[in-house]
Amino acid sequence: MNQILEELRIALYSVWNRRWLALGVAWGVCLLGWAAIAFIPNSYESRSRILVQLDDALAQQIGIGAGNREKDIQRVRQTLTSAINLEKVVRSTRIGEDVTSPRQMEIAVEDLAENIQVSSEQESLFTITASSGRSDLSDGENAVLAQDIVQKMIDIFREENLAGGRGEMRESITFLDQQLAERQAELEEAEQRRLAFEAENPELIGGAAAIGAQLANTRSELRAVESDLAAAQSALAAIEGQLGNTPRTIAGATPQGAASAALAQARSQLAGLKGRGLTDSHPDVIAMNRQIEALRPQAAAEGGGGTSSMNPAYSSLLSIKAERQANVTALQSRKAALSTEIAQTMASQAQEPGVAAEATRISRDYEVLREQYDKLLQDREELKLRGSVETERSAIKFEVIDPPTSPRVPAAPNRPLLLAAVLVLGLGAGAGVAFLAGQIGSGFQTAAGLEKALELPVIGTVSTSPTPASKILSHKRLKQFAIAGGGLAAVFVILIGVEFVQRGMVA
Questions:
Q1: CB 65 within 8 A of CB 72
Q2: What's 161's DSSP letter?
C-alpha cells in the first residue's frame, strides 16, 4: 500500500512540475473537442400517439377486419412508412424545397425513412416519432419541421385509409356491376339456346346426365316390375296346383245345379263390385266377368236333377286364378313397355351421339354461367353491405390520442454531457502527457526513486532554498496558472450557458 501511495505521489509531483504542459494540452484538446461539438447540429424530435382500432363487433360479424392481429399491426406500420407516403411528406414539407430530380427524391425519402420510427405500445396504440437535424436550418426550424413531418404522416394515413378505402369500395362495386351485366347477357343467351334445343329434342332435356339418371330410374322400375312379376307368377302356379287337387263336383244333387249356383253367386258378386263404384276396366270386374263367362256353359249343360253338383271351393279357386292371371298379364305388359323405353333411349344415344354431346355441353355451359352469376351477385351484395358499414361506422377507427409535440429541447446530441466529457478528456490528456514527459526525462523526483534506480543507498537530499525574488516569481507563475486553469473552466461554463440560452430561444 505504501508503495502504491509512493508511486501516486511521484506521478502527481511529475505532473505538477510540468503543469504548464498539462494545461496547454488540456486547452488544445478542449478547444478542438468543443469546436467539433459546435458543428454538430441539434436534432429535434416530435412524437404523436394514435389509436387505430382495426375492427369492431359489427365489422367482425360481416367479415371486415377479421384477419390476423399481428398482420394487421404490421400492415399499419408499412402503410405509415411506405415510400409513397414518405414521398408525399417530402413534397408537402420544406424537405422538398431543394428536390428537383428523381434521384434527389430517392435520397430524401431514404433519409426521411431513417428519421422516422413507428412503434406499437399496445395492439391498437401506435407511436410515430420523427426527428430533424438539418445543418442548413436553425434549431427552431428543425423543431417545426419535425412536428410538420409527424402531422403530415397522420393526415396522409387518415386520408388513404378512410376516404381512400371508401373510394376503393365504390370502384369495386362498379366493377362488379359491369361484370354482372356481362354475365347476365351471357346467361340469357345460354338460356335461349337451351330452351330452343329442348324444344327440338325433348327426350334429351337435361343433357347426358339427365338422360343417364332417367335411364337408371327406368331400369330400377323394370327390376321392381320383374320382381313383382315373378311373385305373381309364383302365386298363379300355386293356385293352379290347388285347382288340380280340388274336384270339380261333389256328390249329391241339388234342385239347382252347382254351376248355376256358382253362376248366380258370381253375378251377385259382380253386382256388388259395380255397386261399390268399380268400372268395367277394373281388374276385379274384369276377373269376375271372365268367371261368369266360364260358368255359363257349365250352368247350361246341367240337367234338371243330377246326382252331383259343382264344388263351390273349385269355383272360388277358379275366380282367384282368373284374378292372378290378369295381374300376371298386366305386369308382363308393363315389363314389355319399360324394356321398349330402355331400348329406345339407348338406341337414340347410340344413333345420335353428337346430339347427346350437344345437350351435355349446352346444359354444362348454362350451369357454369349461372353459378358465376350467382357468385358475383353475392359478392356485390356483400360489398354493398360492407360499404354501408364503413360509411356509417368505419372498420378502421382512427383517433389521435396525443397530437404531435412541439419539441423544446434537442433530442440529440446531449451537448452539456458532451462538453463535460471533452473537459474531462482534455484534463486527462494534459495530465497524461505531463506524466509521460516526466517518465521520459532523466531526473528523479524522490530519493527513493534514485535509490531504486541506482541500487545504492542515498545518504540524504538537499532541499532548495528559494530567494525572495524566486518566491515572488513562483507566486506569480502560480497565479498565472490558476488564471489559465480558471479560464478553461470559465469557457466550459460559458458554453453550457450558451446551450441553455439557445434552448430557451427555441421554446
A1: yes
A2: I
For the chain, the C-alpha Rg in angstroms (whole number) is 59
pLDDT in tens, 424-479: 999 888 888 887 877 776 565 566 666 666 666 766 666 666 778 877 887 888 88
* Nine-digit cell string for 136: 442548413
Q: Say if residues 411 and 43 touch (Cβ distance below 8 Å).
A: yes
Longest C-alpha distance within the chain, in Å? 197
Helix, strand and coil percent figures for the chain, each rounded to 5? 75, 5, 20
Bridge-based pairing state of the strands 397-402 and 116-120: unpaired
From residue 41, give the alpha-carbon distance in Å to each of 13, 23, 144, 146, 363: 42, 29, 15, 14, 78
**Which residues, 6+ apart, have CB-to-CB distance to 304 below 8 Å?**
none
Residues 6+ apart with CB under 8 A from 399: 50, 51, 53
How many Cβ atoms are within 10 Å of 132's Cβ, its own excluded? 27
Phi-psi region of 455 (alpha: psi -120 to 50; beta: other; left: phi over 0): left
Q: Distance between CA 407 and CA 70 in Å, rounded?
A: 32
305 — pLDDT class (breaks 50, 70, 90): very low
3-29: pLDDT as tens digits: 677 667 766 766 777 888 888 899 999
Entry pTM: 0.44
Does residue 407 have a cis bond before it (omega within 30 degrees)?
Answer: no
